[in-house]
Amino acid sequence: MSIVIAFANQKGGVGKTTSTVSLAAALASRGVRTLVLDSDPQANATSALGVNRPADGGGLYAALVEEAPLLPSVVATETPNLAVVPTSPALAGAEVELVSVMAREFRMKRAVEALRERFDMILIDCPPSLGMLTVNALAAADEVVIPVQTEYFALEGLGHLAHTIELVKRNLNPRLTIRGVLLTMYDARTNLSREVEQEVRAHFPNTFATVIPRSVRLAEAPSHGAPIQQYDPISAGARAYEALADEFIASLGDRAPAGVVRPAVPATPEVERDDRAEVPVESVAANDPEGQF
User: Helices (H), strands (E): how many in the chain?
Assistant: First the structure.
């Protein structure tokens, strides 16, 4: 049975999508059957994995509004063991269309449950809001990862997010837990990054030990339709997410997927800085000739 993890923060620009895609690729390189579920109408995770956006009304939109199965929308990426459920801006309309639907908070949960046996990890990239799409993701998830940039106002809104998570846990999803806070855009040269790190760790003891550096390469990778591990595997950003994958798997203990392997290039938990500042959507059966999923 897979573990479903939502990456959530109502603030935009905190590295949420980058972290979802990059951790997914790092997990996949270790033999973990990984699925990225793009629940953000901006569809950035879809583009970052080199997959075209589906036609309006397809993908996650159809699963939420029409209760269509998700499996036909699963697309295998160029990274072995990594697939994605792509989305499009049409998903924004789902929030309006679900307003009068009974049990609307559980639409994503029902769709995801049918995929649990096929994947070890399902990572949900949430939109930068606390609307119905994010609530659906939290209701479907086992755990939440909260990316936080190490910049001014980093803690702004975290209290509201934590309160929302608690409400979802109390009323919709009793098993939901916060896996950890992930510090992103860290610049060891600045006092601000170090001060924000100290403040976040003081408020959230379960903050990941691994921090993600500010990186030009991480910013460039999505425009090439590839995770950082493909775009620049020796960059500081790639190594940071490899280290995060190791820390993440270790934290799972006996829940870690069987047969996890180490990548060829060893990761390092050191905080480093870079020294440098279309495929048609097909069903997984057609786009996965080797039967990975």
Answer: 12, 7
Instruction: Please report, for the chain, the start and end positions of each structural domain, with discontinuous segments joined by +.
Output: 3-255+262-274
Task: For residue 181, give every residue at least 6 positions away whose Cβ sits within 8 Å of its Cβ, in sequence order, or none.
Answer: 145, 146, 147, 148, 200, 204, 206, 207, 208
- Which pLDDT tens digit goes with each residue over 167-208? 999 999 999 999 999 999 999 899 999 999 999 999 899 999
**Nearest CA among 129, 133, 180, 128 for reference residue 13:** 128
How far CA 11 is from CA of 131, 155, 193, 211, 266, in Å, comes to 12, 10, 18, 18, 32
CATH topology of domain 3-255+262-274: Rossmann fold (3.40.50)
Residue 34: C-alpha distances to residues 63, 91, 162, 182, 259 (Å): 19, 22, 26, 19, 14
pLDDT in tens, 204-254: 999 999 999 998 999 999 889 999 999 999 999 999 999 999 999 998 888
CA dihedral 98→102→108→114, nearest 10 degrees, is -140
- Give the H/E segment covering residue 121: strand 121-125
